[in-house]
Amino acid sequence: QVQLVESGGGLVQAGGSLRLSCAASGRTFSMYAMGWFRQAPGKEREFVAAIGWSGSNTYYADSVKGRLTISRDNAKNTVYLQMNSLKPEDTAAYYCAADSRVSTAQAMGSISPRYWGQGTQVTVSS
After folding, report:
1. Alpha carbon 36 to chain centroid distance?
2. Are the C-beta atoms of residues 25 and 3 closer than 8 Å to each other?
3. Rounded distance, CA 121 to CA 126, Å?
């Protein structure tokens, strides 16, 4: 089992940047594929980005390609989401997710992950 705690959300102007972090508990972090999802008010939760066990394999939603970058530091049990060129439509609660049933980013993007953080709010003003 793994516990996830997100941080780094906030209010930023359009075109600005934020970096989200997700700290994971447990000694087997490197055996979990990790992902970021988001949910805007009145909308369903959607996939944003995922990363495989080693960190060399990543996968993104089309809406964020070229602007958001997912990475992980297995020595620190942490996954990051660097968010650049933010748009008002990126406003949402962002959730970190983990699952040991899959190892690749593409697989993580196609399942409903087993473990979730509590979320961190990102608000982009126009």
Report:
1. 2
2. yes
3. 16
